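Hey Z.,

So I finally got round to the WTA thing we talked about over coffee. Here's the setup:
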Amino acid sequence: MSEQQKVYPVTPELAESAWINKEQYAAMYKESIESPDTFWGEQGKRIDWIKPYTKVKNTSFDSHNVDIRWYEDGTLNASYNCLDRHLEKRGDQVAIIWEGDNPNEDKKITYRELYHEVCRFANGLKKLGVKKGEVVTLYMPMVPEAAIAMLACARIGAVHSVIFGGFSPDAIASRVVESSSRVVITSDEGYRGGKNVPLKENVDDGLNNPNVKTVEHVVVLKRTGGDVDWNADRDVWWHELIADCADECPIEEMNAEDPLFILFTSGSTGAPKGLKHTTGGYMVYASMTHQYIFDYKPGEVYWCTADVGWITGHTYIVYGPLANGGTTLMFEGVPSYPDYGRFGQVCDKHQVNIFYTAPTAVRALMAQGDDVMDSSSRSSIRLLASVGEPINPEAWEWYYRVMGNSKCPIIDTWWQTETGGILIAPLAGVTDLKPGCASIPFFGVQPALVDSEGRILEGETEGNLVILDAWPGQGRSIWGDHERFVQTYFTTYKGMYFTGDGCRRDADGLYWITGRVDDVINVSGHRMGTAEVESAMVAHPSVAEAAVVGYPHDIKGQGIYVYVTLNDDVEATDDLKKELIKWVRKEIGPIASPDLIQFSAGLPKTRSGKIMRRILRKIAANETDGLGDTSTLADPSVVDELIENRLAR
Ligand code: WTA
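And the result:
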């Protein structure tokens, strides 16, 4: 691989114009590791504090006492940092450019307008009795009101919990239960790719679940005007709620370690967990990474295509860009509607300078051929970025050549819901680019590779990616279950944060993420626990047992392959397969739809009854020659049957 590795050196212009060059990076990185208190003490000033901090870093990764605090005696408000402090200088500058699903619909909102909208909605929430510290659930389409609701919560000290609009009623129910939300904010429907998404109906179904006992109010934004059921005791229209609300609202003074939001994410075991992010360190880190990693300059138009339902939307559509007084573009639609040229057309229309998307979107466009971008020039773009999964070199080259007209650096950003912000990425003025390489750690980030015993590996090598010390944007806990937080991230390798990813370090010391090493799969950049899909499957009355693995998929990166053993009296039919797919969509959501379902009489198990997923992964990947040792299987003949009946694709 490394022989034919193409390298795209930092251009002299970028070395000159970017926020940071090689020498600066080296000096700043060194200081960030050797003197974190000095470094982050200085960087913390990029945020406005009500009461300035006197302490900076106070963190422990010791598995007996995981405790992460930054700026712990400072107070601030995140909404103030995204809005109020910009009013004097850039009140009339556009904060959010919104582009509708329908290409004829768009909107520009200035900082002043956004400020007033947020204040009004914050007053609306107060009318509903929302108090500091309580969790408010959002289930919203990609409209400015999603950001407005987040910032309104932050303004009054409520903790938002955004649920991605692609999740099912059952998923809404379990998350609402977990967070004991009293208030849910949604919309009548959303638009996506020319279709209506029944958001309010999903919320109604979810809240009908008998386990949901806390919800008192559902605020409904009118987006499409479609028909919705109405529960007059519980539901209130957004526009009616704020009709008589003042457009000024005082901020709540928050401690740096007060929670800003929770966000549910999948792990290798159990139900999705609500990662808890706090206010001070998160804001410092979101703002700093947004500025330096995207090389964001004042006045530029920046577009991150993620949904606000994911961490990428939180940090790099809302908090990072707005803390920096930037112009952030929010897109309601999908890359393929009305046609696959849409991303380019939107870039031209709004003169986008910085564009941030996921490899799965790049591959979907690439599959259409180079002329898919002919309807746009994309000449305004100067920097491209990627997130969500490893970007394969073919997709990287296409992104570079077609989307970026062979003139834009590609910033491949590695991070996680847990990390709050980007941890590993090239910097435009610093790093020579290698397609597919996440490259170098950001300031304060100490990556290391360990073997299965947790021994640190040096030099050019491959291993499990861990981070040795805390950074300000890091998630602090799992909502209501700190022990699970400790167990999940800090016990596999003592004293280190375990990412769940595998990684290679090359001869130049650059990091290449190789993908998950646990039972998490990454489907179109959406993270999913195989255990979650399995438990949905076995909840179906016809299913005796199920095992889920990822397999290589040209567009999605990974597809979902399910092995199912049916109950004795059940017939294996194609109709049943369809029903099972529908079932999983209902239990989790469309993003968890199985791609392939193989019925099988049995699953390969060890004598102690453990399913050997290694074998199932190989069969799903069509790599049946190298199955490795099968001698520990209770019944090796199961494997032959599985291979014989494996599915074509
Ligand atoms: C994967 C998304 C390779 C990785 C921000 C990680 C990546 C998981 C990259 C987190 C990248 C994300 N290169 N892999 N640039 N970015 N990943 O929590 O496996 O939705 O652990 O956060 O996505 O997914 P999450």
